Structure formats: structure tokens, C-alpha cells
Amino acid sequence: MPLSRCLLRWNRWLGVFLAVGLATTTACLAQQQPKQQPAPKTYSRANSFGILFAYSNTSSHMLLGAARNRKLLNVGASYSRRLWMNRVVNWQYDAEFMPVALESDPVKHEIDSVTSPVTIYQNFTYRDVAACRPVNSSFNATVGGVLFASTQVVTCFREWTVGEAFSPIGFRWSFRPRHRLQPFLGGHGGEMYSTRPIPIDEAGSFNFTFDFDGGLEWYRAHQRSIRFEYRYHHISNHNTANQNPGIDNGLFQVSYVFGH
To answer: How far apart are CA 41 and CA 44, in angstroms?
Structure first.
């Protein structure tokens, strides 16, 4: 057999041998290497944007505020940025802007009259720290031997004050980020400006705000969710005005959140 034909046949067998060996080695290595598990899915976003609506029907002395029977209504937007996350908690920076921040005060209209022996009439309209209670009463008093007959009538109505609020300092801690339904805690600090002093005339138009909140966030998809929360919300001017009664509200808030 010529030498060239022998070399050609040898090269063919060598190629087959190398191909079989490479295939066998690759199969063995594939069997030895463990299969990579897919990363667990989490319900969270790096950046979140929200549309919020909040309402409180009354106020009371919950912690710091003294003004009673004040209502709040806020409409605005929020922004959140994820700071750190593990399988237990998702820590986020959270800011809110409310271009519509309405506050409602009870207003007293008081009429004091002396009907005898002379007629004296006084009319007052004012906002008080206490809640307004309607009054319709008459009474008599003797002064210097003279009998005076008097009446007092108090009627109540409500006035809304327009304002805006901004809370640039805020954090949120969401728990169980691998689940659709996640409990969370949070808090915010900021300011509120109104077109007139609140909650009384002797207070200020510029106030500071802070809140502590807790609630549930339900993820409809990995990027969209709805938040339901309850807040302790405080408004006060930090003694920058003549009086600082402060307002404490229990605020209910609903937000639609989306992001990526």
C-alpha cells in the first residue's frame, strides 16, 4: 500500500477517535456539573412611581396635636428607590408630593344677645381648637340689683383651606419580597403650606409634617401593585407662630404603584 494512502487512512481514524473522545468527555462533564437553579422571583422594583389618595375624617389628641375635628384630604404622587434587599426585607427611599392638600376646620358662628333691660347684640365667627358644638340657650343674671336676660346661639359650619405638601425625607421597609402580599412599615418628614393659617387664625400658614405608617402592598404583577395603609399624621408650626395647637390625624391612604 502506498505511503500516502496509509497516511490518509490513519488521519481519518485519528479524526474519528478524537471526535468520539471529545463527545464522551463533554457528556461526562455535563453529568458531573450541578444544574444551575434559576434565581427566585421577587416582587419589587428598583424605581417606583405612585399615585396616591389619602383622607382623614377627624382629628384628636392622639400624641402631640390639640386641634379637634379637623379633616384632611391629600391627592398626589410618590417616588421610591430600592436601597437594599434580601429574602426578608426590601428597604426603600420614599418621597411624596401632594399638590392638593386640603384641611377642614369647624367654624363657630356665635350670637350673644342681652334682651333686657337694654338690648346688646354681639356677633362672632371664629375657629377654635375645640370641636364645635351647637348651642341655643337663654339665662338670667342679676348685676347690681338689675336683672339681665340674655341668649346665646352657636351654629357650626365647616371651611376648607387649600394647601400643598411635600415630604422629601422618607423610608419604607417591605417584608416578604418573594410574595405577592407584603406587609410594610414606613415614615416621612416634610412641610405643608396653606393659603391661610391652620388650624386657627393665630397659628401659621407654613407647617412641618411627619407621619408613621403601616399597611399591606398587593402586587398584581411584578411591576404593578396597590398599597393600603394607615398613618399617624402630625401637622404643627414648631412654635414659629403665635400659637401652635398642632393637628393629629389618623390618615387612610391608597396608592397605585408601578415601575421597573
So the answer is: 9
**232-238-242-245 Cα dihedral, nearest 10 degrees:** 20
Q: What are the DSSP calls for 90-148, one per residue?
A: EEEEEEEEEEEEEEEEEEEEEEEEEEESS-EEEEEEEE-SSPP--EEEEEEEEETTEEE
pTM as predicted: 0.81
- The per-residue pLDDT for 46 is 96
Specify the higher pLDDT residue, 3 or 245. Answer: 245
- Which residues, in sequence order, are bridge partners of residue 141? 148
Mean pLDDT in residue range 70-82: 98
pLDDT at 117: 82
Residues near 31 by beta carbon (within 8 Å), at least 6 away in sequence: none
Rounded Cα distance, 45 and 258, in Å: 8
CB 218 within 8 A of CB 190: no
Write the pLDDT tens digit of every residue in 23-50.
554 555 455 555 555 556 889 999 999 9
Chain centre distance of CA 204:
23
Going by C-alpha positions, the residue among 230, 232, 234, 229 that lies closest to residue 209 is: 234
**Per-residue b/e over 169-180, b at no fewer than 16 CB within 10 Å?**
ebebbbebbeee
